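Anyone up for a design puzzle?
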């Protein structure tokens, strides 16, 4: 029904009407051609030729009719086909020129004409060139009108909406062909500069005129895109004075846009005084010095950080006289961003931006050392602490990952780079940083292909400068890039003369797309914008931004690691440990080499060695080499790889001439605490045996270690751990327990028949035990002489044996009866006490073959963390010294968990023979330290002796 009514209205327009009816028809048409709501009606207006009548009525003398007709044409010119017909077929430009001549000061008419001009120039038909070439009077009038508005007092005769439409028209006329004419011939920037001074002064005092200032800023942003130095000259030489300085005074109106204008003009400026860069820096610095803004971390804080970092992109802005206290302030802001707000992702992104900006100063030594003086390394250490947690207690827990995963992290960042390039490439504008020594040189390489974590634009700060509310692809309107909403409609609602306002309502128009083609994809653009703006908050994972932050920290630390002289703070245990822990965020082996390169570069400085040795850094790193989840866990492999690289680098430094000299000097001349700290880490990092022997024996390191082992203190467990590393990894003491028991042999299963001659033994408990006389005499010299010699027992059938247990003697008799291979020990099914008593009986009865055989059985099958104290105590108590060395060796090199090993040593010390235990450990270590290959004929592949019996006498 509404469509039929509109058709009837258009049909009535074809007939000749009087002015009153014509006005009503035009008003009805105006109501039904809102853009883009009634886009179909605009198409009908064009297809039925009604545009001709609308243009023709512009010749009337009735101002109200002209107003409505201009309003209709303003909406219709948003459609590119209608705009083409209006200019080419109906020759609207002369009509507009005549109207401006007839009504040179009429606010509503001028505003609507300016709007039509702006909408025409938004299309690809280059109507701006046509207007300037064929009807320059229109442009001249526009400039003159705006000049008068700039010079006049604010008496309300010219509305803000009209001035806004005039400024917009001058902006839309700009292209590469019209630039010089607009700037030099018609002086547009001088007039705009005068408006900037007028409304900038007004805004400073009353905060009014902000809408005009926003449109002026948009115009200047478009003009600044072109490298044309007269643009700066024109703005500095207006009739009201230098207008560029007012950019710093109205900075808070649109900070990002103004900074972008300044950065664009910096590319072509010739004098330091051309731009108010120091004043803009001072404004941002004053804002960020407000602690409340940092604590709240609102949009203002984020915006100031991004703008300040973007200004520092230009090398010329990094001089103290221009940037002021920007560098110390950024470090303070970085420190105060605690990553505890509700918008943690945004905070991390700001940290990434600040760290990246600090790294841009790497070719300016004075700024780099200023960063060091401002405790940037302490701030970075705290940031890493917030990311990976503390190092005490050590927290490296992770889930076992046994799957083969593709490295998708690189592809995600590459996609982000493409998206960043799409976001900020504004109509093919070149946003790269000025070519200078500041050009990026440090890049990451993977698979021989360049891969840089920074976005595809000049830097992260340029990415930050793009509005989250205005991210759009290249096809979107220019004005949408920086998030200032465009308004191509009559949002000023001027009242038409001679018309009752109730009969002629001019509604506020919605924001309109400039062309039909763009409007079709506007929903898609908004959808992309929403996705991009949510990328940092909802869509992106927290891990992703943390990875970027760690990566930027590594890049900055690489810069500091190149400084001469080296910085002591780089070698602090906390910083290095947190860097290693941060590897958990990376896919392995991708980017792991970057971190490994940085840490090894830091450790090259030998002054870091002793402080690290006097901390818990080296033992913690050594623990990283353990595979918690097995060899198939990628994270375990990752930590093992980096920790092995760190240990290798420390070994190289420690074994160098300077390193071993410093360690030896501290062992000989240092205080007791220093000596204790050093001996607890020397076995971890010194691999060369001659150097190790000199440090431990000649410089007294071993005695200090033995003293720590003997004393009950917090360092006792650490001494146990380092002794185990020294024995197993450095000296190569073999593990006496080489096999695991699979099955046990039961003596009763291999019982032989009854003997011909039997002897009976009477034991202390009165029990009797029968045995084969000849078998005992054959296997034991003791029984041979006792039963067959000149003793009285040789003629007795019942012989008394004191201090012998029935069970042990019975097992010995059964063992003799068994046909066993004494060269192949087996696990006999006996309890440990019987086993040990059996060995003692064999030694007492001079049965050396059985004694060695049973000792080998215990050594191979019965040594464990629970049995070692029992066996060692028995060896000392029986004074046989059997298995004494084996117990010490197993306690040091056995495959035992740390908790079980500590419990085992506590039980050993509880035996009451501490001095003997410590001395046995010392002798074993000394023997292997002084052992040469020529001392033993039995060697393992690694050159170490495989038999404890070859090295020590029991």
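Challenge accepted. My sequence:
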């Amino acid at each position: 029904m509404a469509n039929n009514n509109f058709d009837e209205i258009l049909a009535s327009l074809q007939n000749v009407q009087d002015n009153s009816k014509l006005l009503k028809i035009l008003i009805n048409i105006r109501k039904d051609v809102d853009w883009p709501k009634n886009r179909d009606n605009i198409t009908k207006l064009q297809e039925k030729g009604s545009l001709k009548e609308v243009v023709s009525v512009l010749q009337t003398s009735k101002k109200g009719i002209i107003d409505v007709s201009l309003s209709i044409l303003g909406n219709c010119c948003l459609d590119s086909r209608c705009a083409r017909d209006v200019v080419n077929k109906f020759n609207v430009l002369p009509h507009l020129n005549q109207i401006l001549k007839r009504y040179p000061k009429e606010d509503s008419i001028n505003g609507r004409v300016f709007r039509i001009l702006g909408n025409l120039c938004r299309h690809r038909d280059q109507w701006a060139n046509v207007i300037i070439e064929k009807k320059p009077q229109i442009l001249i009038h526009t400039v003159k009108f705006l000049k008068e508005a700039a010079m006049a007092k604010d008496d309300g005769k010219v509305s803000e909406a009209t001035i806004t439409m005039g400024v917009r028209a001058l902006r839309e006329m700009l292209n590469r062909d019209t630039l010089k004419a607009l700037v030099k011939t018609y002086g547009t920037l001088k007039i705009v500069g005068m408006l900037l001074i007028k409304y900038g002064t007004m805004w400073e005092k009353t905060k009014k005129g902000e809408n005009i200032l926003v449109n002026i800023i948009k115009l200047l942003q478009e003009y600044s895109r072109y490298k044309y130095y007269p643009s700066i000259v024109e703005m500095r030489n207006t009739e009201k004075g230098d207008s560029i300085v007012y950019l710093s005074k109205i900075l808070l109106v649109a900070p990002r846009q103004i900074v972008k204008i300044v950065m664009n003009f910096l590319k072509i400026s010739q004098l330091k005084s051309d731009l108010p860069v120091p004043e803009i820096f001072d404004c941002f610095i004053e804002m960020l010095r407000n602690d409340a803004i940092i604590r709240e971390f609102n949009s203002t804080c984020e915006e100031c950080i991004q703008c300040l970092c973007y200004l520092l992109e230009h090398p010329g802005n990094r001089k103290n006289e221009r940037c002021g206290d920007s560098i110390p302030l950024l470090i303070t802001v970085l420190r105060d961003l605690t990553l505890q707000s509700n918008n943690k992702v945004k905070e991390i992104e700001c940290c990434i931006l600040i760290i990246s900006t600090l790294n841009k100063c790497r070719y300016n030594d004075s700024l780099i050392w200023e960063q060091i003086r401002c405790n940037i390394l302490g701030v970075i250490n705290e940031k890493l602490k917030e990311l990976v947690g503390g190092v005490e207690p050590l927290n490296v827990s992770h889930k076992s990952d046994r799957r083969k995963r593709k490295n998708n992290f690189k592809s995600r960042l590459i996609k982000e780079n493409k998206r960043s390039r799409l976001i900020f490439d504004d109509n093919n504008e070149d946003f790269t940083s000025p070519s200078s020594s500041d050009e990026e040189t440090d890049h990451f390489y993977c698979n021989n292909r360049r891969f840089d974590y920074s976005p595809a634009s000049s830097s992260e700060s340029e990415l930050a400068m793009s509005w989250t509310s205005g991210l759009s692809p290249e096809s979107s309107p220019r004005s949408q890039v920086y998030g200032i909403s465009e308004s191509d409609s009559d949002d000023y609602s001027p009242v038409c003369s001679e018309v009752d306002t109730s009969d002629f309502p001019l509604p506020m128009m919605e924001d309109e797309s400039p062309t039909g083609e763009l409007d079709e994809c506007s929903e898609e653009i908004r959808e992309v914008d929403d996705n991009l703006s949510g990328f940092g908050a909802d869509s992106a994972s927290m891990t992703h931004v943390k990875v970027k932050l760690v990566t930027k920290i590594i890049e900055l630390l690489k810069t500091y690691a190149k400084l001469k002289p080296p910085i002591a703070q780089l070698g602090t245990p906390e910083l290095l440990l947190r860097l290693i822990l941060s590897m958990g965020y990376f896919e392995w082996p991708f980017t792991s080499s970057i971190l490994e390169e940085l840490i090894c570069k830091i450790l090259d400085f030998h002054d870091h060695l002793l402080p690290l040795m006097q901390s818990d850094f080296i033992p913690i790193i050594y623990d990283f080499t353990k595979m918690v989840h097995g060899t198939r866990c990628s994270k375990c492999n990752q930590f093992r790889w980096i920790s092995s690289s760190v240990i290798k680098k420390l070994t190289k430094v420690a074994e160098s001439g300077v390193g071993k000299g410093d360690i030896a000097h501290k062992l000989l001349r240092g205080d007791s605490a220093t000596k204790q700290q050093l001996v607890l880490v020397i076995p971890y990092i010194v691999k060369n045996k001659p150097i190790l022997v000199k440090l431990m024996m000649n410089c007294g390191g071993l005695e200090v270690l033995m003293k720590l082992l003997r004393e009950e203190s917090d360092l006792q467990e650490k001494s146990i751990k380092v002794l185990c590393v020294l024995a197993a990894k450095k000296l190569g003491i073999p593990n006496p327990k080489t096999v695991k028991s699979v099955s046990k042999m039961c003596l009763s299963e291999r019982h032989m028949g009854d003997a011909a001659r039997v002897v009976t033994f009477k034991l202390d408990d009165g029990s009797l035990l029968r045995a084969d006389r000849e078998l005992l005499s054959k296997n034991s010299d003791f029984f041979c002489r006792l039963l067959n010699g000149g003793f009285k027992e040789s003629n007795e059938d019942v012989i008394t044996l004191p201090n012998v247990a029935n069970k042990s003697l019975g097992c010995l008799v059964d063992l003799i009866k068994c046909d066993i291979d004494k060269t192949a020990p087996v696990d006999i099914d006996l309890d440990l006490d019987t086993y040990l008593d059996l060995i003692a009986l064999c030694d007492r009865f001079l049965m050396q073959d059985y004694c060695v055989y049973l000792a080998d059985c215990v050594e191979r099958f019965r040594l464990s963390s629970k049995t070692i104290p029992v066996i060692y105590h028995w060896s000392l108590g029986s004074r046989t010294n059997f298995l004494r060395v084996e117990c010490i060796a197993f306690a040091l090199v056995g495959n035992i968990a740390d908790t079980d090993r500590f419990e085992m040593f506590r039980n050993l010390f509880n035996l009451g023979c501490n001095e003997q235990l410590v001395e046995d450990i010392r002798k074993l270590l000394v023997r292997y330290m002084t052992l040469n290959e020529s001392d033993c004929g039995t060697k393992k592949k690694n050159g170490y002796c495989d038999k404890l019996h070859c090295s020590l006498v029991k």
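A detail worth pointing out: DSSP finds 51 helices and seven strands in the chain.
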